[in-house]
């Protein structure tokens, strides 16, 4: 059995040593760590040795089956080499280390030594500019193979999403966006074998967020602005000059003011803290250390309408800006929220500006069976004659696809018609008039009676009235 295994090894070894003429090719950049892993047979007792260039050159490292290891004392190699089993590891590879490496295994069990050759080929990867990029900056990436090879390797760049991008002679150029932040890869293909060389591209940009936000006095307000935290870490140590929020107010149905008010500025000393410039009751997000620069408030206010600008100014003068427009949804009741039974009422649900075409409006009348509205989606509702069923809370919501953006509420109260009051007034005044008439009539009669008595008194003024017969004589 043992002899069978041994002879199999010998066969493999013979095959390998004759076929192993083809180099194993490794592409590497200066500074990378390269591990050369040979695949020799596995005889019991053996001795392995690594050479550079040719077998006559001094060795780089060696190992034996008893666990002994040595590393070259050559100053050009010593610091960079180590042995892991049979494998040779070159850490932080330098210019002088590119070339051919020969692995040789000798064993009394093998008829002839086993050889395997490796070739480490230098790949130059450069990124211009090498520093942090801002959106719209131009990026150029080159990936070139340092030596002439019989079969020219093909070179292809992959972007941060792993998609192939135009590459000509190892060169790729483009203008970056936030999406380009991440690991790009140069893929070198030689002899149908791919090798990937990663490059880290840093683009400072805000995380994707809606540029339009809606709020109302009955819903919350959040103004998003955040930077991916891994980029933020670098930005903090980078040359930031200023981070601030500005507000450009907008009147209802009016244009956005050009005069900005500074709301907050970030104090860049550790720990990062916001300094409040204008108090609008907005609170910065607590996790500013992770690059979250957002502002929030529990409830919106009518004067929140306007544009909010979050900006980062770099020492070179470049500015990274994000503008969020805030619209405040309101329900306007005309002539008012208190109405008389039977009156005409118009309810408008509006932000003061036309809604984008993908934003839908939806009305929710008070939950009463008697209330029905013709159109739940029009901005204006006209109720020709309000009934008592129309009193209560009317809600209007804004929707975008399946997301509720905000909602506004108005409370209508309906009072009994003033007709009744008028009737009361008329009845009362009629009563008063009747009473007055009666009083007047009575007093007139009284007076007349009194005058009659008075007249009679005047006709007979004597103390002892004469008998009637007095006049006849
Ligand atoms: C050390 O290694 C370098 C590079 O391989 C070689 O050129 C040089 O001759 C070696 N020096 C000695 C003393 O072997
Ligand atoms: C930033 O903070 C706000 C408020 O605390 C939060 O709603 C939001 O999800 C945060 N954003 C990120 C990207 O963490
Ligand atoms: C309601 O709207 C209609 C038509 O738009 C208008 O004629 C009417 O005067 C409005 N009524 C009130 C009370 O605003």
From TrEMBL:
Name this polypeptide is given: MAM domain-containing glycosylphosphatidylinositol anchor protein 2-like
Gene designation per UniProt: LOC103367548
Higher taxonomy: Eukaryota, Metazoa, Chordata, Craniata, Vertebrata
Transmembrane segments: 421-444
Keyword Transmembrane among UniProt keywords: yes
UniProt keyword terms in alphabetical order: Immunoglobulin domain, Membrane, Signal, Transmembrane, Transmembrane helix
SUPFAM superfamilies: Immunoglobulin
Domain of life: Eukaryota
Protein's UniProt keywords contain Transmembrane: yes
Signal peptide limits: 1-20
UniProt domain Ig-like: residue ranges: 113-200, 342-406
